[in-house]
Amino acid sequence: MIVIAIPSRGLMHSRTMNDILNNLEGYNGDVQFVFSHGRPQPEAQNYITDEALALKPSHILYIDDDMQIPPGVLMESLKKNADVVVAHYPCTHHGSDALHIRDNVFESAGLGWMLIKAHIFDKLTKPYFRTDVQYVWNGQELAEEPVREGQDRHGGQEVYFSQALVKAAITPAVIDTKLGQYSIINNPYRKYGNSTQLEVENWILR
């Protein structure tokens, strides 16, 4: 069974759900979903992980609530048959890659798309995701440092988890297909009236 774990903070792109359902076509195994509904980072990621593991799956598939997922990505990821499978996708409007590999050495990947065999959590310690520490390149390696008071910690939980994989000697496999993100570019909170549709742009790698 695959548990699809979505750390949504309250909203999710319908396009993303449509992409997920399209990817499930042709997959004959059991699938369940878990959501985090309104929890902040990294509580959202830790919550959905605990909920997913309680279901005793073979895999956990983390997907962010704004991902653009081409058809066939799920099967491509499963065919890797790796403990962890990650993907290239943009994490900024300018197309910065969420996957970081320096000198052919894996450093970190985003949870926008990450397929994990559930048994690897036996090699990791709780909390699986943290934002109170950061990893900074010191010229030779990524070194762990405390996060300064008031410092933006967005995405830090993904780097922390990635480095936990590195310490456990787990190197993710990378699929060839590149993913994207959907980004709302007008007011997402209007609920009334005849023109409440959302205008969305696609983020791509550059």
Description:
- The chain has 206 residues and is of the alpha/beta class.
- It is 20% helix and 26% strand.
- It is built from four helices and 13 strands.
- The chain has a six-stranded mixed sheet, sandwiched between helices. A three-stranded antiparallel sheet has the order 4-12-13, covered by helices on one side. A two-stranded antiparallel ribbon has the order 6-7.
- Strand 6 and strand 7 form a beta hairpin.
- The radius of gyration is 17 Å and the shape is globular.
- The mean pLDDT is 89.
Q: What is the strand and helix layout of this fold?
A:
Elements: E1 2-6, H1 14-24, E2 31-35, H2 43-53, E3 59-63, E4 67-68, H3 73-80, E5 84-86, E6 100-102, E7 105-108, E8 113-117, E9 133-137, E10 142-146, H4 156-167, E11 173-174, E12 180-184, E13 200-203
Parallel strand pairs: 1-2, 1-3, 5-11
Antiparallel strand pairs: 3-8, 4-12, 5-8, 6-7, 9-10, 12-13
Note the run of SSEs as H and E. Answer: EHEHEEHEEEEEEHEEE
Gyration radius (Cα, Å) is 17 Å
Structural class: alpha/beta
DSSP E strands, number: 13
**Measured distance between first and last alpha carbons:** 35 Å
The helix fraction, in percent, is: 10-25%
Give the uncertain stretches in residue-range form.
none
Main sheet properties? 6 strands, mixed
Number of helices: 4
Determine the mean pLDDT.
Answer: 89
- What share of residues are in beta strands? 25-35%
Global morphology = globular
Neighbour order of strands in the largest sheet: 2-1-3-8-5-11
